[in-house]
Fold this sequence. Notes:
Blueprint: H1 2-8, E1 11-12, H2 13-22, H3 36-45, E2 49-55, E3 63-68, H4 70-85, H5 94-100, H6 106-133, H7 147-174
Helix pairs in contact: 6-7
Amino acid sequence: xxxxxxxxxxxxxxxxxxxxxxxxxxxxxNINYGSIYHALNQLTKExxxxxxxxxxxxxxxxxxVYQLTRxxxxxxxxxxxEAAWTxxxxxxxxxxxxxxxxxxEPDEAVRxxxxxxxxCRSTAENLHASAAAYEVSDVPSDGKPWMVPxxxxxxxxxxxxxxxxxxxxxxxxxxxxxxxxxxx
Length: 184
C-alpha cells in the first residue's frame, strides 16, 4: 500500500484501488481490494500517510488525497529492504489440506487432489494469458509498471509446480503408496 501511494502521490483511495486492480495485485500480493480504504486510514493513524487535501470531480463526492510522510517513506524502504534481504517461502494455504487429508477416505482425497491440480493448472494458464495481454508502458507515470507481468508469470509458475506436485501425490494415493489414515 505504501509503495502504491508513493508511486502515485498525491493519490486518493479510488486511484489506489484502480491501480492495484489493474496490476492484478490480488494474484501476487496479499491484497484485499475491499480493505484498501481501511488500510489507508490505518496508515494515516500510524503516521505513515498524511492527508494532502481533497479532490472533487463534478457530481462526485469529495475524495481524500494521501501522500507519504517522512516516516512513511522510511517505513516503505525499511519494509522493502526487509522483504528483499530475508525472502521467505510463499505461504501455501493448501498445505493445511495436505496436513489433514488422511482424515478423509482415500477416494475422496484423490478426487480433491485431482480437482486441486486441475484448478491450479487452469489458474496458471489464465495468469499466463493475463501476463501476455498486459501492456507495459514506456512511460513510468501512467501506472503500467513493468513488473506486473513478471509477477503474474511467477505466480503462474508456482501454481503449475503445485499442480505437478499435487498430481504426483494423487497418483501415489491411487497406487496405495501413502500411509493409512490414523484415527484416534
